[in-house]
Amino acid sequence: MPWVVIANRLRDGIVVFLAPGGGWVEQIAGSRLAGNEREAEEMVALGQQAEADQEVVAPDLIAVEERAGVIVPTKRREAIRATGPSVRTDLGKQAED
Amino acid sequence: MYRYDEFDSDFVLQRARQFRRQTERRLTGELSEEQFKPLRLMNGLYLQLHAYMLRINVPYGCLSSRQLRKLAHIARVYDKGYGHLTTRQNVQFNWIKLEDTPAILEQLASVEMHCIQSSGNCIRNTTSDPYAGAAAEEIHDPRLYCELIRQWSSLHPEFSFLPRKFKIAVTGSPRDRAAVKVHDIGLRLHRNPAGEAGFEVIVGGGLGRTPFIGKTVRDFLPVQQLLSYLEAILRVYNQLGRRDNKYKARIKVLVHEMGTEAFQKCVEEQWEQIREGGLTLPQEEIDRIGAYFAPPAYEDLSDSVPALETTRREEPAFDAWLQNNVVEHKQAGYAIVNVSVKAVGAAPGDISADQMEAVAELADRFSFGELRVTHSQNLVLCDVRKTDLEALWRRLAAIGLATPNVGLLTDSICCPGLDYCSLASARSIPVAQSISERFADPGRLRDIGELQLKMSGCINACGHHHVGHIGILGADKKGEELYQLTLGGSADENTAIGKIIGPGFDAEGIVDAIENVVETYLSLRQDGERFIDTYQRVGRDPFKENLYASDQGR
Amino acid sequence: MPLIKGGERVDDPWISLAEGAEIPPHGPLIVSLQQWRDQRAALLARADTLGIRLASDQPTSEIADDLSHFELVALEFPSFGDGRPYSHARILREILGFEGELRAVGDVLLEQLHFMHRAGFDAFVVSSETALEDWRIAESEIRVWYQPTADGRPTAMMLRRG
Ligand code: SF4
Description:
The complex is a heterotrimer.
Chain A: E1 3-9, E2 15-18, E3 24-25, H1 37-52, E4 56-67, E5 70-73, H2 76-83
Antiparallel strand pairs in A: 1-2, 1-4, 2-3, 4-5
Chain B: H1 6-27, H2 33-41, E1 45-47, E2 52-56, E3 62-64, H3 65-78, E4 82-85, E5 91-96, H4 101-110, E6 127-128, H5 143-153, E7 168-171, E8 185-191, E9 197-203, E10 215-222, H6 226-240, H7 251-258, H8 260-274, H9 283-292, H10 306-314, H11 316-325, E11 326-328, E12 334-339, E13 350-352, H12 353-366, E14 370-373, E15 379-385, H13 389-398, E16 413-414, H14 429-438, H15 442-448, E17 453-456, E18 470-477, E19 480-487, E20 499-500, H16 507-524, H17 531-538, H18 541-549
Parallel strand pairs in B: 6-7, 7-8, 16-17, 17-18
Antiparallel strand pairs in B: 1-2, 2-5, 3-14, 4-5, 4-13, 8-9, 9-10, 11-12, 12-15, 14-15, 18-19, 19-20
Helix pairs in contact in B: 1-2, 1-4, 3-12, 5-9, 6-8, 7-8, 10-11, 14-16, 16-17, 16-18
Chain C: E1 3-5, E2 8-10, E3 15-16, E4 29-32, H1 33-38, H2 40-45, E5 50-54, E6 72-77, H3 84-95, E7 101-106, H4 110-119, E8 123-125, H5 131-141, H6 156-161
Parallel strand pairs in C: 3-4, 4-5, 5-6, 6-7, 7-8
Antiparallel strand pairs in C: 1-2, 1-8
Helix pairs in contact in C: 4-5
């Protein structure tokens, strides 16, 4: 099962994902996927470093799956974080693409 | 309403500046998240699913039009154009930036508002009767005591690091609209045979994981002793409340484990030592604060308004609104108007910046510039001339705030749930919306009559599901949202904790289940019975049998 | 660790008696509740001043009758969130009338100093390297007080009533 690292950006609280190359992106589509545990561990360490550097808060490794070419968190909670409130589809990330 | 003097103004501004400094220290890394978290929480700033959430205290639910305009401004500039009325009479914004928060706090300070202790293990904003000062049956206006509690509890040097959060509610009416029996401390104002005002003091009520109905520890506490007695209770709790398990840390568990009598004895002993101290309220101070809550300049009006009767015959929608949303006032010629923030299919308690501004305008025009937030997530215009009711109704209808459903099934209480809240197990808003749509027909709704539906997205019970006539609790079962149904709860003067009726339902099934429960009630009710009356008469079995007779929804 | 007292960073003349250590013949000495109970006579036989340290789950009633023997009471804050010592401090000052040094030890951070001072503490062992600066910030930020406590600051109500 692949994973991504999710967090909230410290300054504004917006949900972000660890990207390839070490930065953070707002859309899960741009996130770095860990295909094995070793890579996952490495990404967790990067998340913790970013927290120590006051970049993000509460980095967390979450399981995702690919559905029709789209990366979706397996848990509903994280899926809602990755898109926005299901009752306000005009807001959040789902309204941005 | 209360107005800040120089001391109050300085205080909230000093606090806002302090938070500016704390935020700067966080952003530069001098404070870690672990150190900063309790500080931001003590200023009402949570980190939720999508962003920071800021909870703003509406002191005991009282709001001026000026304050509401400021909230509209904050919604527009710092949020995404809307806010949420909470079940504790507060206002929340869902999309706040940490870096903006000090500025928001300063803006709030400019209209005499703050977020102090809207979260954290401290004494939270006191809640009260949304009809305070206007209700026909009121014995004593509770607001002045709420204000005294607000000041006494603000940055209390002893009680800012309690075992757990602490909520106080005050009512001054025989009809309890403040749910005083399910608060850490509930205060019920009444008069003794000599005509003096005092409090019945109720301790240890609460919802959440283990609901308890509060116990009376004192039948009559003279109002002058209010603060010293509260201090004695809090001192006992602060020392003895459990700190080893956050689920057992509320005062309700302490009272339960100690036993009411032992707890009471402890409090009385503490109180003996401080009752003559500096917390005794001088009568002049009570009078001085009380003067802020003097009735507005009511006109001398007739209570009968023939034109109203004519319009209500011609306009069934107006008639329905008068019946459900308008309540008797103590002053002849005036009425209390509930502004329903529960339009069909809307998220309960969500209100847009435009609506806030429009309601502020209406408050200025029709209700002395003041309004209230209710714990059922609506607004109230407390002092409306009966002759203005029609004009007010038309304007409210134009902005979607005149749904004639106050107190009815679709006036549900609903927490933010998994759409916003980081603690949630399941979504609650979509369920409320589906139920609202299923029961959209006003005629059917009115036929069903008074029915309180309360829904929480997790066991923390912010949506008060335990005390709903019908309660819904969202849970997570192996990744699927599951909704549990409780029946027979009540939050008024006859407080009762609802009972779980049986296995839970999925998101669609729960809406059918509600309909099934309502049909059972309609088939069993006798003349004039409300849902809760029928339930109390027949018990849960008939409901259970009908619900699980077929396999529907499971 | 820096000790703040009377708005200054001062040297600490007190020493704490380590677990199982010999009682030193001289010097101001802070002992735990257990040490006080076990070695009361020996401690009282010393010519020098005595202080006692209470954990947050040791209520003031444990020492109420012995208070005259102590010139210092140190109350431990095991963590930021454990607020019991605030109650203990107020009881010591306002009910038991303790007038000696009331010292906050343990997890003592800038953000609590003001609450502590108001509750009756007058000495603070602060771990921060900028302890004195912290103290000044804590004391300068909030200058309106609503609760009457033993620190004697005038409350808003008193000031309103003139
Ligand atoms: S009840 Fe649970 S889901 Fe709902 S607001 Fe409270 S904590 Fe969040």
